[in-house]
From TrEMBL:
Pathway: Lipid metabolism; phospholipid metabolism; Phospholipid metabolism. This is EF-hand domain-containing protein. It holds the Pfam family Acyltransferase. GO terms for biological process: phospholipid biosynthetic process. SMART domains: PlsC. Its main location: membrane. One of its GO terms (cellular component) is membrane. The keyword Glycoprotein does not apply. It is found in: Membrane. Belongs to the 1-acyl-sn-glycerol-3-phosphate acyltransferase family. Residues 375-410, 412-447 form the EF-hand domain. Keywords: Acyltransferase, Calcium, Lipid biosynthesis, Lipid metabolism, Membrane, Phospholipid biosynthesis, Phospholipid metabolism, Transferase, Transmembrane, Transmembrane helix. GO terms for molecular function: calcium ion binding; lysophosphatidic acid acyltransferase activity; O-acyltransferase activity.
Length: 508
């Protein structure tokens, strides 16, 4: 299939769709496409789901009661200082069996490949790809090893108590000190002579759609101890378990899973990986090599995406940035094209050279000329196609600039608004019409068109037909300060306005 991109008097260039598409591991689409599937889901929702939910609740409550009894009189500090012993420890296999019954009642058919190692052989177990709440079936099968988990899971109703019984290592993602403490705790337990349980980790740190293995976090590889890699697969016709940043909610996935007569899950225990001396000194190398072994066993590629990419994409979706879910791919392509770190887009925006016949309709040739790229670079074509939503050979350059610049570094809401105003300032005179104002607001503050228009009317009290950025920020600080403060309690840095004012003078 060929696509032609033409520019005014410039000759056409023929582009081929033979470039390898970039993977986005954070997207999962799930739809019931056939009438049969829809009817079956309705019937099983009425007949099967109530029975399953009732039995599952019974086993959850029973396991929770045993965990509550087992943890009675044990402080949080004691859970961190030493492993459970005596009758408390003997309760753990029973609780694990009760939880395993929940998966069986939910229709999970578990297939085990390989042999689980003992703690003496491998103090750590690394499971990937992490794609679902269902992955915990491996933990239950192993009898309840300690897990490295988000701190928020401790407060989950019922399940929080069950997780606490495994003596987990909690990580508070937004607290840098917590991560360091977690690494120290992993090192302490894996090298201890005490009878701690194995530690199970999800080294990717977030859920993906299993299309690839993303970057492994280094924390669990610092101890330099043997690790058993464990691969997990869900070979089902309808994937009702994958839970990603863009896709069905957890409730929808749980409901659709419970309406399946059965859901297949394969857990493969690979041979224990013994690090060499170089890997013991370099946790990143150790993590990458373990990932390579697992990717080979799974038959999928490795892609250097990370949790920070997820965090960026989530923020972009909240702001309603154009092509928010594609910005991870955009970031990677910009690295390939050596655009990242050059500040080329920002320099372009602030200079007088930011001109195009119609920035909402830019061709491929115009795009590479503006960005000073080569027309024969495949990555440049891939980057262009991301924004060519309808395959018309045209993109809105403003969408590209806003997505790139708004997610670079850790910009404040005010800084992002400044960028949006500059990008949608069509006449480069420091004034935004109602249409461009709405674009700037809707695609940075996540507002609807009607709300944005109402805001425009309130700022444009004199009915001039345009607003300036300083007028808007002053109005917002008095009427809706949460837009600018963004919940941080910090006031806007008004000196940033000078950037835009100087830009106005230069254009004038």
């Amino acid at each position: 299939m060929n696509a032609n991109f033409a520019v005014g008097g410039i000759s056409q260039v023929e582009c081929h769709n033979d470039t390898e598409p970039l993977l986005n591991p954070f997207v999962h689409h799930l739809e019931l496409n056939t009438t049969y599937e829809k009817i079956k889901t309705i019937i099983l929702t009425l007949i099967l789901v109530p029975v399953r939910v009732g039995l599952i609740c019974f086993f959850v409550v029973t396991a929770w009661m045993l965990a509550t009894i087992g943890l009675y009189g044990v402080t949080e500090q004691e859970l961190q200082d030493k492993p459970l012993d005596g009758w408390r420890k003997s309760l753990k296999p029973l609780i694990a069996k009760l939880i395993f019954c929940i998966y069986t009642l939910g229709g999970v058919r578990l297939k085990i490949i390989g042999r689980p190692s003992s703690r003496a052989e491998a103090p750590l177990v690394a499971l990937a790809p992490h794609s679902s709440f269902m992955d915990s079936v491996a933990m239950v099968y192993l009898g309840g090893p300690s897990i490295v988990a988000k701190g928020e899971t401790a407060s989950l109703p019922f399940f929080g108590k069950l997780i606490n019984y495994t003596q987990p290592i909690y990580v508070w993602r937004d607290d840098p000190e917590s991560r360091q403490k977690s690494v120290k705790e992993i090192i302490k337990r894996t090298t201890s002579k005490l009878d701690w349980p194995q530690i199970l980790i999800f080294p990717e740190g977030t859920c993906t759609n299993r299309s690839c293995l993303i970057s492994f976090k280094n924390g669990a590889f610092y101890p330099g101890v043997p690790i058993q890699p464990v691969c997990i697969r869900y070979p089902n016709k309808l994937d009702t378990v994958t839970w990603t940043w863009e896709g069905p909610s957890a409730i929808k996935l749980l409901w659709l899973t419970l309406t399946q007569t059965s859901s297949n899950c394969e857990v493969e225990f690979l041979p224990v990986y013994y690090p060499n001396e170089e890997e013991k000194r370099d946790p990143k190398l150790f993590a990458n090599n373990v990932r390579a072994v697992m990717a080979k066993a799974l038959g999928i590629p490795v892609v250097d995406y990370s949790y920070s990419d997820c965090k960026m994409m989530t923020k972009a979706k909240e702001m309603n940035l154009p092509f928010a879910t594609k910005l991870v791919e955009v970031r990677k392509l910009r690295r390939k094209l050596e655009l990242k770190g050059t500040e080329r887009e920002e320099a372009l925006l602030k200079s007088n050279s930011f001109t195009c016949r119609d920035c909402s309709k830019v061709t491929f040739i115009e795009f590479v000329e503006i960005m000073r790229l080569q027309t024969n670079e495949q990555a440049a074509l891939q980057l262009f196609r991301i924004y060519d939503r309808n395959n018309t050979g045209l993109i809105d350059l403003r969408d590209y600039l806003l997505g790139v610049l708004a997610t670079e570094d850790d910009k404040t809401t005010e800084e992002i608004l400044l960028l949006a105003f500059m990008i949608y300032d069509a006449k480069r005179n420091g004034k935004l019409t109602a249409d461009n104002f709405c674009r700037a607001i809707c695609q940075t503050l996540g507002m609807g068109q009607e709300q944005a228009l109402q805001m425009f009317d309130q700022v444009d009290r004199k009915q001039l037909g345009f607003v300036r950025i300083d007028d808007f920020l002053l109005w917002a600080s008095k009427n809706v300060p949460q837009l600018i403060y963004h919940g941080t309690g910090e006031k806007p840095n008004w000196k940033n306005l000078e950037i835009y004012k100087n830009h106005d003078k230069k254009i004038d």
